[in-house]
Write a structure and sequence with these properties.
Layout (H helix, E strand, L loop, with lengths): L5 H4 L2 H9 L7 H22 L9 H14 L2 H20 L4 H10 L4 E3 L10 E4 H8 L13 E3 L2 E4 L1 H21 L3 H7 L4 H21 L9 H11 L6 H13 L4 H6 L9 H11 L13 H6 L19 H10 L5
Antiparallel strand pairs: 1-2, 2-4, 3-4
């Protein structure tokens, strides 16, 4: 079982050792590190391509994966890979042979879990602090995960094994994003110099899969995130949308495969619409005249510019939802996801 450990994951010496390792090395550790490197790279590439055959099972693989994600700094790659790792963790937790494994896993995530056996009923075996339950259960859909449907006593919630596993899954996802945020992108890239060609290959794989996937969903506004729908609604109503809002929408539409002519149509009702200027700006952000292809702002930037309209959209509230394009891609794959 993978036991997430922040100290191990943040150990740069470990990461540099794995990155530099060779399968033909003389030392046993060198060969072990090389195997970790190979399996982790295969796991991330599999997550990018949607291939679930690759697998990780050691905290060292989790650590190497985390530094690669920090270096790549591609939100969709990060989300896909962490979700894939979460699925593996879910199976490991669900199939755990010893209750102590669940307790130890929770402890690594700073969650206090204790086995309570028959304290209340035989179906409620685990005791979790109410704050921890409320934090992570709110990210899971389904009535069985609502606090109002649990047994609560003296500040603790008593839950079944299946509910605990879901709570720990969400805590794991939160932990992983937190650790990645602790790793400087430049430091990660420097530590991973020996595998720079592999990182370039992962970036190329992501671009091919991502661009192909976005084009497949073109034209279906139902898959757009709430922020983009709101900007479009405001433009249609003749409201003077801010420059950041216009930039966000235009770059989003470009990224999901809309042509210049198609993007222009979304701005025709803007009170200050001038077609020549609009076309110039679209050419600029698409890289046609600037040489730089712009990407829509991250969710954090959208929020700071008062352009986030998530309201009660469950998908927007997911821990890993940090970019409008991630929302679109997830919806494209499963329109019913919440």
């Amino acid at each position: 079982m993978i036991f997430p450990d922040r100290k191990t994951i943040l150990d740069r010496n470990l990461i540099e050792g794995i990155a530099a390792a060779s399968i033909s090395g003389d030392a046993q550790r060198d060969r072990e590190y090389a195997a970790i490197k190979r399996s982790t790279l295969a796991f991330i590439e599999g997550a990018i391509r949607g291939d679930k055959s690759a697998y990780i099972s050691e905290v060292e693989e989790l650590a190497f994966m985390t530094w690669i994600l920090a270096s790549l700094n591609e939100n969709i790659v990060t989300a896909r890979t962490i979700i894939r790792a979460r699925d593996i963790v879910e199976r490991q937790l669900a199939n755990a042979q010893h209750n102590e494994d669940l307790e130890e896993f929770a402890r690594r995530l700073s969650i206090d879990v204790s086995i309570e056996g028959n304290i209340l009923t035989k179906d409620h075996l685990y005791r979790v602090q109410i704050d921890d339950f409320a934090t992570y259960a709110s990210r899971v859909t389904g009535a069985r995960y609502r606090l109002s449907n649990q047994i609560v006593k003296n500040g603790y919630v008593y839950i079944q094994n299946e509910v605990l596993v879901r709570i720990l899954e969400e805590a794991f996802v939160s932990f992983m994003f937190s650790v990645i945020d602790d790793i400087d992108e430049n430091a990660a890239t420097d530590a991973l110099k020996p595998v720079s060609d592999d990182l370039a290959r992962l970036r190329d794989a992501y671009r091919k899969v991502h661009n192909r996937g976005l084009l497949e969903g073109k034209g279906n506004i139902d898959m757009f995130p709430p922020c983009m729908k709101e900007i479009i609604k405001n433009l249609d109503s003749g409201i003077n949308v801010s420059h950041m809002g216009r930039l966000a929408l235009a770059s989003f539409l470009h990224k999901v495969g809309y042509s210049e002519d198609e993007i222009v149509q979304y701005f025709r009702n803007a009170p200050d619409f001038e077609e020549n200027i609009t076309r110039y700006q679209i050419k600029h952000l698409s890289g046609e005249i600037s040489g730089t292809e712009y990407t829509p702002p991250k969710c954090e930037t959208m929020r700071s510019n008062h352009l986030c309209y998530m309201d009660d959209d469950p998908l927007c509230h997911r821990e890993w939802m940090k970019h409008p394009l991630t929302y679109y891609e997830v919806k494209r794959k499963n329109r019913n996801i919440r």
